[in-house]
Amino acid sequence: SASQTKTVKFISGNKEFIGKGKVGDTLLDVVVNNDLDLDGFGACEGTLACCTCHVILNEKHFEREDRTNPAGEEELDLLDLAPEVSDRSRLGCQIKIMEDDPEVIEVRVPSVTKDQRSA
Ligand code: FES
User: Fold this and answer.
1) What region, left, alpha or beta, does residue 13 occupy, with left being phi > 0 and alpha being psi -120 to 50 degrees?
2) Rounded distance from Cα 116 to ligand 1 centre (Å)
3) 75 in helix, strand or coil?
4) In this structure, are residues 79 and 85 in contact, taking their beta carbons and an 8 Å threshold?
5) 56: Cβ below 6 Å to ligand 1?
6) Residues 6+ apart with CB under 8 A from 18
């Protein structure tokens, strides 16, 4: 059976930040709970107000999220403002670890973050 604890690898430029999370945790939870040194990530603590938690998912991950947990209007509006936005961009505070995720989940973190609240 699928494991309830997963490893999440955040790739930012040539750096990797690795944390553990449980099924149901958001990617932001993983950053916070593992005290990952991702500068400025998750500034609004998951309240859909900043876009500093911007992540770029791999194709398979993105497609599944798009089917089961599509971005809402607020998320899309914030992503419009995110630097380095791509067609596989999501907000990390809205993406939860799922039981059928691979044991190691990889996401890319843009090298630039912008806190929408200070724009
Ligand atoms: Fe601010 Fe996700 S943490 S929008």
Assistant:
1) left
2) 10
3) helix
4) yes
5) no
6) 7, 8, 9, 10, 34, 36
For residue 77, how many other CB atoms are within 10 A of its CB? 13
With a threshold of 0.95, tell me whether the complex ipTM lies above it.
Answer: yes
pTM (two decimals): 0.92
Q: Any idea which residue has 């505070």 for tokens?
A: 93
Cβ–ligand 1 contact at 31 (below 6 Å):
no
Cα separation, 3 vs 108, in Å, equals 23
The two three-digit tokens of residue 16, written as one number: 């990797």
User: Tokens in use for 49?
Assistant: 């107000």
pLDDT by residue for the chain (119 residues), tens only, comes to 567 999 999 999 899 999 999 999 999 999 999 999 998 999 999 999 999 999 999 999 999 999 999 999 999 999 999 999 999 999 999 999 999 999 999 999 998 766 777 75
